[in-house]
């Protein structure tokens, strides 16, 4: 919420002056601010009567009122982040991501006039994505500085989400506001053997520990253009090689991505990079495995998971990346089985874009669907978001929507207990002229 420009503080009346001239105190209360004319004319008349000349004995010099200083637009972000990104970039000239020229037979696209013209036609598309990406960068860089062992996962998640909403300028508390801009994907805080889709529900008291490996995965959207990016935090150096393996695998996937690239071949490069690493933890050496049943994905407007997947192991999938596609290249490494299953309490949900009309018999399901349609549409949400909107006793209705195929549930995905998993993710735009790693920052 924008802060009001503070009014100038009223001048205090000196107590001694007031006792000598009681009328002054009364006048200070009753005379409108800025109305100096009557006071001056009275003083002048008194002076003229005293010397009989018709001119004031001591003409008062009127004080020139200093013009109020205009409040300047902020030039830097606060801690925690609360300054609108649009105020930091008033002309909407948001930073570009990392632009990578196409290679081989697509190299001509970098300078081709027709392709450059197509790129220029997408100015709104690029502006929305770049704004969302800058919000993500600033929030995650703040989060990396402030997240420490001893914090609850609820406090961490709320800190990230409050910052995203503040920077986009959309709190998401009125109908439709969260669909203009804000959270594009709930803040995942998946610990150790849990690889993805865990965020605390109401009443969760889990505390981040010194020995934990935590995946921080959240999305930001502007007008439905979703930037999905993730990183892993660990506080012990023994996990360094695990994190490095996954970061290198993600970067390898990004390098291979581009127009006409086949997703199965990209998966092979990711797997080869990932599994060239091993990590020693507490005296035991583990090979780092690609989690074979997790993938990257393309992103569509208001839909985090599109129709194409990017495997992180070698496959025969011949699907090609195409001009105009938006992909989340995300990779997951594990010291366990390299395979995840649904586990723990579900928190993530999203309305299915392909859901058919269903006559719902449960009144709580009908009511909740109306709330979801108005506030999220097909954007993913979590149970904390429903709590925040004042919804209560909604679980029966929510489960009914899931059972009827209207809402998709995304349970936490976990490898075997005792293992450690890591994740890194970036969003890339397959533009006509270049590949843009839109979420790239100085941090990763």
Automatic annotation (TrEMBL):
Gene3D superfamilies: Creatinase/methionine aminopeptidase superfamily (3.90.230.10), Winged helix-like DNA-binding domain superfamily/Winged helix DNA-binding domain (1.10.10.10). One of its GO terms (cellular component) is cytoplasm. The keyword Hydrolase applies. It is an enzyme of class 3 (hydrolase). Its EC number is 3.4.11.18. Pfam families: Peptidase_M24. GO terms for molecular function: initiator methionyl aminopeptidase activity; metal ion binding; metalloaminopeptidase activity. One of its GO terms (biological process) is proteolysis. Keywords: Aminopeptidase, Cytoplasm, Hydrolase, Metal-binding, Protease. Residues 36-46 have a biased composition (Acidic residues). Its cofactor is Fe(2+); Mn(2+); Co(2+); Zn(2+). A divalent metal cation 1 binds at residues 217, 228, 425. The keyword Protease applies. Substrate binds at residues 197, 305. Binds 2 divalent metal cations per subunit. Has a high-affinity and a low affinity metal-binding site. The true nature of the physiological cofactor is under debate. The enzyme is active with cobalt, zinc, manganese or divalent iron ions. Most likely, methionine aminopeptidases function as mononuclear Fe(2+)-metalloproteases under physiological conditions, and the catalytically relevant metal-binding site has been assigned to the histidine-containing high-affinity site. Residues 60-73 have a biased composition (Basic residues). It is found in: Cytoplasm. Belongs to the peptidase M24A family. Methionine aminopeptidase eukaryotic type 2 subfamily. Cotranslationally removes the N-terminal methionine from nascent proteins. The N-terminal methionine is often cleaved when the second residue in the primary sequence is small and uncharged (Met-Ala-, Cys, Gly, Pro, Ser, Thr, or Val). This is Methionine aminopeptidase 2.
């Amino acid at each position: 919420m924008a802060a009001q420009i503070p009014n100038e503080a009223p001048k205090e009346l000196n107590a001694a002056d007031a006792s000598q001239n009681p009328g002054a105190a009364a006048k200070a209360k009753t005379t409108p601010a800025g109305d100096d004319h009557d006071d001056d004319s009275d003083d002048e008349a008194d002076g003229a009567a005293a010397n009989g000349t018709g001119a004031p004995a001591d003409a008062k010099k009127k004080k020139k009122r200093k013009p109020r200083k205009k409040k300047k637009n902020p030039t830097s972000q606060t801690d925690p982040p609360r300054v609108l990104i649009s105020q930091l970039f008033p002309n909407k000239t948001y930073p570009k991501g990392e632009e990578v020229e196409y290679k081989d037979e697509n190299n001509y696209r970098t300078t081709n006039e027709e392709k450059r013209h197509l790129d220029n036609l997408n100015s709104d598309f690029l502006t929305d994505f770049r704004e969302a990406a800058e919000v993500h960068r600033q929030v995650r860089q703040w989060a990396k500085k402030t997240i420490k062992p001893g914090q609850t996962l609820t406090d961490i998640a709320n800190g990230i989400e409050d910052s995203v909403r503040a920077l986009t300028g959309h709190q998401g508390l009125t109908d439709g506001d969260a669909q203009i801009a804000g959270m594009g994907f709930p803040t995942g805080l998946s610990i150790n053997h849990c690889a993805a889709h865990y965020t605390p529900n109401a009443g969760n008291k889990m505390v981040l520990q010194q020995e934990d490996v935590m995946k921080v995965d959240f999305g930001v959207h502007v007008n439905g253009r979703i930037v999905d990016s993730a990183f892993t935090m660990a506080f012990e150096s023994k996990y360094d090689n695990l994190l490095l393996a996954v970061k290198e695998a993600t970067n390898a996937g990004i390098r291979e991505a581009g127009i006409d690239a086949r997703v199965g071949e990209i998966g092979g490069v990711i797997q080869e990079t990932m599994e060239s690493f091993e990590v020693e933890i507490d005296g035991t050496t583990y090979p780092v495995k690609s989690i074979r049943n997790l993938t990257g994905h393309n992103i569509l407007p208001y839909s985090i998971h599109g129709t194409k997947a990017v495997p992180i192991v070698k496959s025969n999938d011949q699907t090609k990346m195409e001009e105009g596609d938006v992909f989340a290249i995300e990779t997951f490494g594990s010291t366990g089985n390299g395979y995840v299953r649904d586990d723990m309490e579900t928190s993530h949900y999203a309305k299915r874009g392909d859901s058919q009309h269903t006559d719902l018999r449960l009144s709580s399901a009908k009511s909740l669907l109306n709330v979801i349609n108005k506030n999220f549409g097909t954007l993913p949400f979590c149970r904390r978001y429903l709590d925040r909107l004042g919804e209560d006793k909604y679980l029966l209705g929510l489960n009914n929507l899931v059972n009827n195929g209207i809402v998709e549930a995304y349970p936490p995905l976990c490898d075997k207990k005792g293992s450690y998993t890591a994740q890194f993710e970036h969003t890339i735009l397959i533009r006509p002229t270049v590949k843009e790693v839109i979420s790239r920052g100085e941090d990763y």
